[in-house]
Specification:
The chain has about 350 residues and is of the alpha+beta class. The chain has eight helices and 13 strands.
Length: about 350
């Protein structure tokens, strides 16, 4: 520590003794405000720069709703300690970017987990964002043009009690090939819209649910449940189509879907490199369009009527698995938040079927 910081820490340490002790225990990971893996001068600078009322911000180390001497006390108590909450990942951003996660309540929920928002899996190099616990209404969200199918009803309340990480993008052809040794995708050629250098960043397509299990093996990753997928798609919205930074509340207007999706009216008949459209309120791209995304659940058209309200795992058995999100060649109906498709787990859906990963922290 330089001399200025020594004097500053000393002064603040005295002040910190005059405030109440934190109401809950904190450790190095709470005090690692900037997410660089250790507690030190940069964290102190972050706390001092945010001094005052600051509910839900990373510098509020003890979660009291304000950055004050108690936060300094916690920081000093773990000064110099290392923090590695996710040994499988590299932290890219500790706190959610307010330009992407525009909802203050969602940012607060993410920060409250104590986990970093954006990370990269060290084994697969897949970038992931944190989805916090929460509740939502699952099921039918009609658009201005398209109604819901019976399988999207009844609308029912769902609570997810555990935070999880989800792929920021659909798994790409490069990521699949690096792990599996070959590329099954239909769209492997360059085009006028996709130069050769960007082809590896197209989503992998033509993959079955069964084949995906080989990709996931030994990675700690899994497919999201159908409930997790819809919760992540909606990101706090209740509309047919999720929001984006310029329209955070989402929309039922089918004419606006081009802002978030490669689909029938925007794709020119093929997949596009991931991340080319605006993200949703959690920072996820291409949740609508590009390729259909497999989820873990068996499919049942009547499951919603008897689904548990907490952490629904899907039906115990079935013949088909669920896919979500629509694809490059579909109309806006299939891109809605509640739309459901199903296929045999061994079906690769030539040019249509892909996936994104999830995992526990």
């Amino acid at each position: 520590m330089n001399s200025w910081l020594v004097r500053m820490v000393g002064c603040v340490a005295v002040a910190s003794l005059m405030v109440a002790a934190p109401a809950r225990g904190q450790g190095a990971c709470d005090a690692d405000v900037d997410g660089n893996g250790s507690v030190g001068a940069s964290d102190l600078a972050s706390v001092l720069s945010a001094w005052g009322p600051c509910a839900g911000c990373a510098a509020d180390v003890n979660g009291s709703g304000a950055v004050d001497g108690a936060d300094i006390a916690v920081l000093l108590s773990v000064w110099g300690e290392s923090c590695n909450p996710l040994p499988w990942a590299t932290v890219l951003e500790q706190s959610p970017d307010p330009a992407i996660v525009t909802s203050g309540s969602l940012r607060k929920a993410i920060i409250a987990t104590g986990l970093p928002w954006r990370v990269r899996d060290n084994l697969t190099q897949i970038e992931m964002v944190l989805i916090p616990p929460g509740s939502f209404n699952m099921g039918c969200s009609a658009s201005n043009v398209h109604s819901c199918s019976p399988a999207e009803n009844p609308v029912h309340a769902v609570t997810l009690t555990d935070a999880f990480y989800m792929g920021r993008y659909e798994v790409t052809q490069a990521q699949w090939t690096a792990r599996m040794g070959s590329n099954p995708s239909y769209f492997q050629s360059a085009s006028a819209e996709v130069p050769a250098a960007q082809v590896p960043n197209r989503p992998v397509d033509t993959v079955s649910w069964t084949t995906i299990q080989g990709f996931l093996s030994v990675t700690g990753m899994r497919l999201p449940t159908e409930a997790e997928w819809e919760y992540a798609y909606r990101a706090g919205t209740t509309t047919a189509f999720h929001g984006w930074p310029a329209q955070t509340a989402g929309t039922n207007d089918d004419t606006l879907v081009g802002n978030i999706a490669w689909f029938q009216e925007t794709s020119n008949g093929h997949t596009r490199p991931v991340g080319g459209k605006a993200p949703n309120g959690f920072g996820l791209h291409d949740m609508a369009g590009n390729v259909w995304e497999w989820v873990s659940d068996w499919y049942s058209s009547t499951y919603y009527a008897s689904s548990p309200s907490t952490n629904p795992p899907g039906p115990a058995t079935g013949s088909n698995r669920v896919l979500r999100g629509g694809k490059w060649g579909m109309e806006s109906r299939q891109l809605r938040s509640s739309h459901r498709l199903h296929a045999a787990p061994g079906s690769a859906g030539i040019a249509y079927f892909g996936f994104r990963v999830a995992r526990a922290p």
